[in-house]
């Protein structure tokens, strides 16, 4: 697919141009409403997720925002899982504080939580396939079943599990991704996408997205298309290496607990086996026996792995949330979010697993 960088498209007929204004599937005329390279990405990810259409956005948060602001109004109620991506959680807080949207948070361990929280005003159920950083896995078929027939739409953030899980097959109505992560895959793109099971819902969100202006830039879409071509190979290798690292960590005396859905002692291991039969993705976390200091020292002692945010990159990354992204939180609030003071998150890249393990082992030795 070439890069169509142009933002305007000209017409012979005024009627043809007028018709182009009507929706996401019409002729290209102005790139905020659609662009050939961006649409090519939208079609590819629609196929990957098995949807009816997609909306590519400027970032993952752009997709989350377009979906939430496009479908909710003041007085509406949302049921969301507690372990959410930080930016999504902040947006829900904002929607509650400033826009009068009620949000009920659930642990997402039991679909009965949804039935208890449902109200006549409930519009959306918001879930994540695998949540950060402790890799909680949500039983998507059971949760979408809990709202079947109520008119509530289920939104699933599938950023951690592209290809490994296809939420629409499990009853989801909308899937969002930060394409910044696995879809582009090389740490050189900011982007997002929302995939819709239903054309009308796609149309409603698109109408809001063109007002919001959070649309994908053609160059970012083109880079993401290039990334998509290798995604199956990357995700397979990253899942295999993450499982290898998780097993070795679980057997190491300096790691107290390892969080990875592919391990037999994971709290949702049975769900993961059903939902993620081909692998559990590249993200794992562990609790160093030395607690907070050990987590921080480990994150600075790695050499092959880089200390930095993000995930899904070809390069492996480490984060110690308590001393970085979550530094404002005390031990109690961290615990409420399921994060330990020492918790270390790893996003496994494409390096050789033996090289990764050698790096992890030397960093564990320094942090013990
Ligand atoms: C990174 C991320 C986002 C936000 O994506 P951006 O591209 O940074 O805007 C949303 N959800 C999850 C699960 C993420 O990891």
Automatic annotation (TrEMBL):
Pfam families: Cys_Met_Meta_PP
Matches recorded under Gene3D superfamilies: Aspartate Aminotransferase, domain 1, Type I PLP-dependent aspartate aminotransferase-like (Major domain)
Keywords: Pyridoxal phosphate
CC cofactor: pyridoxal 5'-phosphate
Protein's UniProt keywords contain Manganese: no
Family membership: Belongs to the trans-sulfuration enzymes family.
Name of the featured protein: Methionine gamma-lyase
Source species of the chain: Actinomadura meridiana
């Amino acid at each position: 697919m070439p890069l169509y960088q142009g933002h305007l498209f000209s017409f012979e007929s005024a009627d043809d141009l007028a018709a182009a204004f009507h929706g996401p599937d019409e002729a290209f005329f102005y790139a905020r409403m659609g662009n050939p390279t961006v649409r090519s990405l939208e079609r590819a990810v629609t196929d990957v997720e098995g949807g009816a259409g997609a909306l590519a956005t400027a970032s993952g948060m752009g997709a989350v925002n377009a979906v939430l602001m496009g479908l909710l109004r003041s007085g509406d109620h949302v049921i969301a899982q507690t372990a959410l991506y930080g930016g999504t959680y902040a947006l829900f807080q904002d929607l509650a504080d400033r826009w009068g949207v009620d949000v009920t948070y659930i642990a997402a361990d039991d679909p009965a939580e949804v039935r208890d929280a449902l109200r006549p005003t409930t519009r959306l159920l918001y879930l994540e396939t695998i949540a950060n950083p402790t890799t909680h896995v949500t039983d998507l078929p059971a949760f979408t079943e809990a709202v079947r027939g109520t008119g509530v739409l289920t939104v699933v953030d599938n950023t951690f599990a592209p290809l490994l899980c296809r939420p629409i097959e499990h009853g989801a109505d909308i899937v969002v991704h930060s394409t910044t992560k696995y879809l582009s895959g090389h740490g050189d793109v900011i982007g997002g996408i929302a995939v819709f099971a239903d054309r009308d819902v796609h149309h409603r969100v698109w109408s809001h997205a063109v007002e919001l202006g959070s649309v994908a830039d053609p160059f970012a879409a083109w880079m993401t298309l290039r990334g998509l071509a290798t995604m199956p190979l990357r995700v397979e290798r990253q899942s295999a290496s993450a499982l290898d690292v998780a097993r070795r960590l679980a057997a190491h005396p300096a790691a107290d607990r390892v969080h990875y859905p592919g391990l037999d002692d994971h709290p949702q291991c049975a769900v993961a086996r059903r939902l993620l039969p081909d692998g559990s993705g590249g993200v794992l976390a562990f609790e160093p026996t030395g607690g907070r200091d050990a987590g921080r020292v480990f994150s600075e002692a790695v050499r092959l792995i880089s200390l930095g945010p993000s995930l899904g990159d070809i390069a492996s990354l480490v984060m110690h949330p308590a001393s970085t992204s979550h530094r404002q939180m005390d031990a109690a609030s961290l615990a409420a979010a399921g994060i330990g003071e020492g918790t270390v998150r790893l996003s496994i890249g494409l390096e050789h697993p033996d090289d990764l393990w050698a790096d992890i082992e030397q960093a564990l030795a320094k942090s013990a």
